[in-house]
Amino acid sequence: MSERILVVDDDASIRETFEHHLARQGHEVATAQTAEAALALLPDFEPVLVITDIRMPGMDGIELLRRVREANKDIDVLVITAHEDMKTAVSAMKAGAYDYLVKPLDLDQIDLLLERCFRDRSLRRRVRHLTAEASEGHELEHLVGREPAMIEIYKLIGVLAENRATVLIRGETGTGKECIARAIHLNSPHAAEPFVAVNCTAITETLLESELFGHVKGAFTGAVESRRGYFELAGSGTVFLDEIGDMGPELQAKLLRVLEEREFYPVGGERPRSTKARVIAATHRPLEELVRNGSFREDLYFRLKVVEIQVPALRDRKGDIPLLAKHLLGKIRRKLHRELHGIADEAMKVLESYDWPGNVRELENTLTRAAVLARGPIVGADQISLTAAAPSDERGRPEGPTDDSLEAVEAAHVQRILNQTGGNKRQAARILGVSRPRLDRLVEKHGLDVSR
User: Fold this and answer.
1) What angle do CA 445, 446, 448 make, to 5 degrees?
2) What is the C-alpha separation between 21 and 7, in angstroms, rounded?
3) Does residue 391 carry a pLDDT above 70?
4) Fewest CB atoms within 10 Å of the CB: 27, 177, 381, 388?
5) 137-312: which CATH number, 3.40.50.300, 3.20.20.80, 3.30.230.10, 3.10.20.30?
């Protein structure tokens, strides 16, 4: 990875050491003898990193640090200090320095520090990208619905955007829980901070802990360098924990500490770190039942539901289907770059007669498929394919997925792994790359055999 680095030091030998070493690493390097000369180079050279000594004639490194951060907060600054100058180094860290180097300089240490700096920089860019991507289409005007239940949710979003209370969003899969969480964040004073969404069922618990809280070097096999977690990277933004009901007991205890003490320990770490991030959690599972059977902590349950939002299923607000369909079709039109003027009356009647077990997400997928198949600018009833369930007046459901459906493939694959492991769920979960609670849900969902 080649980066632009500006080295500032009144000692010519140190400038030359950095210049030669960093150039051999493939970086583009510029040097300056004074802080004033460095500031003059900033606009044209556009470095991503400034390495500066603290003690220099004229403007010192601390003032340079402040000027650089004022000019562009995305530029990282490393300061160089002597052993007897630790108080100044602490001042530099408080002023926003990424880290500091102690003289005499160790080239191996420099390489490790730069690697960590550039990795964190890349991660910050990824978080900003995800936040920007998340913000598209999640303002209040893009939440669609006029049913009374949705109006009450809009009111809650307005109230919650003005405070930092922990929120628990409940509702079936596909109802738009994450969309509501993002709307709360994006209408708050902290909208410019990251919004980090984490699916608690998508990765194993060990990896989830590292993702949330970070880890120190050597904490586990493969942890060759320390890494910050989402609670630290989110700053004063929001960490959204989707499917919180599937979080394991050990991680539940650590999340409880975050909510109570606003601090956490990285994996393998001995010193706590603090977080200012807001927590919004979501689930489609009955947490009260999980508390009763001991799989979810009661104290965490009450900490999470400071404010609770219940998102209605689409079948319970069918009056919103025409509005939703129109809104989603506009979104699909922009995505597919197609001329789509509307939905035929007969097609709309089909949409309104269906129960939508997959809720808004299923409606969007259905309209996307219809838009692809439509031969003209109007989506007709012939393009609406509702094979997953019968219309609401029939109240029917299919007895099972077809052999080629995603559900059938998923069920067959999980059953094959269970057979391969002799019914050992822990081993099967590791092979599948899912958490144990997630595997239990898959077994229950598909009625799989674990007795082998």
Assistant:
1) 120
2) 12
3) no
4) 381
5) 3.40.50.300
